[in-house]
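Q: Fold this one first, please.
A: Sequence and structure below.
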Amino acid sequence: MAVKSPLVVLLGASGFVGSAVLRELAARPGRVRAVSRRPAAVPDDARAEVEVLAVDLCEPGRLAEAVAGADVVIHAVAYIAGSTTWRVADGDSAAERVTVGLVRDLIEAVRRSDPPVHVVFTGAASQVGPADREVLDGTETDRPAGEYDRQKLAAERTLLAAHEQGLVRATSIRLPTVFGAGPRSTARDKGVVSLMVRRAVAGQDITMWHDGTVRRDLVYVDDVARALVAAADHVAELAGRAWLLGSGYGAPLGEVFTRVAELVAEETGKPPVQVVSVPPPAHAEAGDFQSVTIDSSAFRAVTGWRPQVPLDEALHRTVVHCVDAMEPS
């Protein structure tokens, strides 16, 4: 009798990051259950056996249904509200239910599994809060400033506490600024880089809340997906703590947006739009003006992961995707 391959349950499979993870998982043999509120798009050339489950995980009992029989769970659920995926108002109970509540539900659903279920949680590098240095390596003390980061940290701590109790084998991968799109993308990126790409394609100025010298560690979404799958393959070595993910390069946003304007001009044949500084809005946070570069050498040493898509190529893919999406069919 043939032994079944481990079942990987992907929560948030239709989202921006989750859909990229699904493409990565589908490209190799195995069993995958793709769970999301709306049916996830399975690649036509999938090698994996993919089960699609469309369900609202916040409904009672649905999380347990989603992870039944799981050997590995990749938690990529994101609370989405407004124009971005990460701005959360103080005291937002709906966001707390998704970000923290689903982690509690997950632990309750798998706590009696033997052996313990392996869990990979998608955290955020910004959970550390405003730091006193630009380069982060994971040794910093967490002092989250915004509600999104506080909730992410609460969820991460809840999961790692369950690991300490032996209820799961869990790790958290703190993601950098993730961006991008390409020919196989099925979900919209609501982050600032792709937002400014769409502005440029529409002929609007690219705007910054600073002088452009603020640096960000930008990683293409397909590289992030590869990292999360690598984490799932190495949970035994990664379990019990959080790990930072990043390229190791902090790109000045002024230079990034100027390059975006150039690439859009090349694709559309129109003059490049202007990159301008504007006053920050009232909801801007201290972290919006802080440069961040991430040293992910610890994660790389365990998993062997490296970014494969250079920044300029990732920007080009994103621009081409956005130009194609805005052209009349």
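Q: Good. Now the second chain.
A: Here it is, same layout.
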Amino acid sequence: MTYRFTVRLLMITLAAMLVVATYQVMPALRMAYLEPEAAPRVVTARGDLAGEEQATIELFQSARDSVVFISTAERVRDPWSRNVYEQPRGTGSGFLWDNRGHVVTNTHVIEGASAATVRLADGRSFPAELVGRDPSHDLAVLRIDARDLPEPVTVGSSDDLQVGQTVLAIGNPFGLDWTLTRGIVSALDRELPSPAGRPITGLIQSDAAINPGNSGGPLLDSAGRLIGVNTAIYSPSGASAGIGFSVPVGTVNRVVPELIETGRYAPPSIGIRYDPRVNEMARREGLEGVLILGVEPGSAAARAGLEPARLSGDGRLVAGDIVTGLGGETVRGVDDLLAALEAHRPGDTVRLSLRREGETREIEVTLGEGG
């Protein structure tokens, strides 16, 4: 019994000595094998930025201050106390149009809001007043009373855009302010419904990441010029899927000055009444063009003597004049007519192509203002 106890005690003693020796040796092992690898790595010099990178950086720095952050609020009534208060509604983007404090954004950014605040890139915030809006193009103009404003965005052209051109978007997606994304022009002359229900035509499609909050921000070309206003995305998830749409600057440059001057946009009109549903039924029967259902008194159509459709004695609709072209553009339906009118202004004289009882003719009319 004493022998076994002695052997066990000896084994315990040896194990304890081994543990002590291990703890004494481990620091040396750590010093020998671990510490040299834990030292910071040597930094390798990067060298100059690539020319394309430098150009993008300079573009962002020059355009950033022209872009603004828009936050909106809505007036609600507490159902219990009946007190009225304002609560945050949403955020969006916009950009300075001129040195007088006019800010361009989308109609849907401020739709339903009772108040809007514009924050500049330097951190200053100002209450904004609504100057005018045009739901048919999803454009709106706000105004802030501020001094020492940054330079407004440089305006370019959308008439000569080509698929494949580089585009850049600056905005505030998901409230992440002054975010830059980059892509290319993916397609031109796209069409989407507007908040007013009629289609917005001539839209620029790009794959620059556009997300909720980018709405109203500028789409720029590689020279830093405004070529569009970001207005919508196509996405099953509601986030960027690489398909964004922008209102072309040609439309913006036509609509915004009218909003600033009069508070509304009056589209050009020839003074005819039509019904898209009736026209669609007529198209299914083989009719090409826009069936005139009425003529506004004193309008270009009235001065030109255009004849509307009428009902026969047995209740059938008898066509009068049918619009088949405007300004050199073929008109197959109502959307084509609206798109052709969009290329003109009130006061322009355009050539109108008509068909009546199988005969075609062309006349010139001077466009008036629509409602």
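Q: Anything worth noting on the second one?
A: Helices lie at 2-33, 35-38, 51-63, 107-110, 249-262, 276-284, 300-303, 334-342.
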